[in-house]
Amino acid sequence: MAKFKIRHITKYLYENMVRDSAxxxxxxxxxxxxxxxxQHEIVITGDPFVDIYVDAYGNKVGTFTHARPxxxxxxxxxxxxxxxxxxxxxxxxxxxxxxxxxxTLRKRLDFVDFMRQEERINALEELRGIVAExxxxxxxxxxxxxxxxxxxxxxxxxxxxxxxVETTIDEIWKLKSGVCQDxxxxxxxxxxxxGIPARYVSGYVCPKKNGMRGEGATHAWVEAYxxxxxxxxxxxxxxxTAGEAHVKLAVGKNFGDCSPxxxxxxxxxxxxxxxxxxxxxxxxxxxxxxxxITPPEIKPSATKNSFRRHQEMQMxxxxx
Length: 320
Fold this sequence. Notes:
CATH topology of the largest domain: C8orf32 fold
Number of strands: 15
Mean pLDDT: 85
Strand content: 35-45%
CATH class of the largest domain: Alpha Beta
Distance between the termini: 24 Å
Shape: globular
Number of domains: 2
Low-confidence stretches: 292-299, 302-320
CATH architecture of the largest domain: Roll
Largest sheet: 8 strands, antiparallel
Order of helices and strands: EEEEEHHHHEHEHEEEEEHEEE
Structural class: alpha+beta
């Protein structure tokens, strides 16, 4: 097991005074056998009341409004968490029985979102051909999940600054490069086309002095559903399983379901965004990670009550 102190600071600085800043935050670690939250505090400019609920995917979500005029908004999350190794599935059940079990999940509403492609993909037939060819090299769903994780890792170049949170699957496929969010989105497509339910995971990858991409910063990976076991985390950016260094915040169909912060406000469209994530070892040594993806343009809300139509204020995060 391992313990980490994580501080995640998001700071918006506006050119002029703004108001009615309505925001949604997904900065609360999930509760499962892989991790335990020991302490957690979120400090927000203006100390607004944060209404918390659990969404359809089991994520803890907070919403708040900072109504008073302000020129700066800071969201400061301070977390102490303990993580545990991820158990390995027992892969002894015959392969055909496992694939048959996955077929039955197509009829279950709680798996529908994780088995279909929502985004229109022009390269879909090409991707289906790749999946058919590559899946023949794997046996069980677990072996296939690991194989496709390895495929993305080996066939896509890790490059910062060439994609954004709005980059499409077709663009990622053409570029054959990107950061952790792009690697995760690509793996989701390959797994779902192969018949394996898969979901996007947002969180942090904490430094263990082992040279993993994205250490000490926000990160994205994938969970594949393994028959007779459950959700199993694989990290295509590092070609590894999700282990003690991975801290999970939220899951969903894609990044849009898991954005750590998004919102809208009334006022000037000119602003700057600064995101800092620092992770402290148990011995007190602190590491700060780099954030790779430039957020899309943020526009002020047209009406007072336009939170539902918010622009995603995404810290690049996710995306090493």
